[in-house]
Amino acid sequence: MTRSLTLVRSWKFWTADLHSAHPRISTLRVLGLAVCPLLPPLLMASEETPLLPDVLLPSKHELVYQRFSPLYKKFVVATVAWCGLMPLFLSGTFSPSIPQIAKDLNTTGESVGFAVSLSVLSTSIGALVSASYSTFYGRRPIYLISLPLCILGSLGVSAARDMSDLLFWRFWQCIGASPGLVVGAAVVGDIYKLEERGTGMGIFLAGSLLGTTLSPPIGGFISHFWGWRVMQLCMGALALVAFTIFMFAFPETSHPGTRGIDKFRQSGEAEHRWSFTAVNPLRPLQLLQSPNICTVSAAGFFLLLTDYVLLVPLAYTMGKRYNLDNELLVGACFLPCGLGNMVGAPVAGRISDRIVAKWKNKRGGVWYPEDRLRATFSGGLIFVPLSVLGCGLVTEYIGGPIGLVLNLLLLFMNGLGVDIVLSPSASYVVDVMHSRSAEAMACNAYGRIIFHLIV
Questions:
Q1: Above pLDDT 90, what percent of the chain?
Q2: Could you say which of 147, 206, 436, 452 is the most buried, measured as most Cβ atoms within 10 Å of its Cβ?
């Protein structure tokens, strides 16, 4: 009897060990096949060992992206895209009203133009600071702190009585709007897994780039009929709506346990729950030491250079060539490029996701981040170079309505090509530096912002 019990116990342990090591053949325990004694025991298990194979259960990596439903993810992307268009709206709506501001404040257009450069500088500083602190404290607190600054800055700009007031409040207004693009891209990386991230990033960039498309005509229209101060109040209202959404309906998207403050508390170094830890705001610039980040940033710099070459002198190139003496008509010429951005971003994002999945399957599940950059070839090698060359040739040799229409089509082509490159590049940066995605995005954009400052 004792020997029989010993054999039963041994059989139970052997089959449990077999199940632990080889879940797919756990049915051997039921069938009682004699191969079990041939396998050495690997792990001890109990009667509670599951019969279903573990491979059917989602991994922890997959579960972290299932925290939110697809519909709620779209809401999150729409919310951060709303904040992403704010810095673009601030710059795009301010420029058309420079003559009116100069007249109202009894100064020169060149002096008011300095506020544009200052706003770009403050946006770059704010992007670096917000990226560093969002990695440590999370995404939601950054928005809850920055958006009130944007609201107060907008109120201050609208009430400015001289240039010193304008510059002071403009600085804080742009600081408050600065997290929109860098932290927003990090949020997209938080909620979408690898094979979906390009599509999510494309939708985010398309929504954000509405600011580039709509801000010049909207800013000119409101400033013309109601004044530039009303336009600034409208920007404050936009920030207030965003703040309300973040306060009551927006979740923390950082992966559980990955924030710096979480690790700090787990180590026991935090004295109490609300202790503040200072973070080096220049830390994202260390990422430029990475050849991958530096190369992608340089590529984006040269691509956006074509935008500046075509759009900044547009009033003096296309405007004079085709007799566009109305500011509204000149501003309308910016629309095709913005529309190209809006179309190119989501299309390129979806294509990059398909390319990643295709090459991952070809290698039997092995993924290389650089696969996503294959989606940039058509934009960087065809659309952007040909559109710049075409604009120059058409402006020089083709006049009249035909030349104007061709130029507008080429501007659309340029905007399309630029975002066919930038959208997968942004997703790539998040892929390779996922734990510091906001900092990587800030570092990636910093060189472009400084160039904009110089221009």
A1: 20
A2: 147
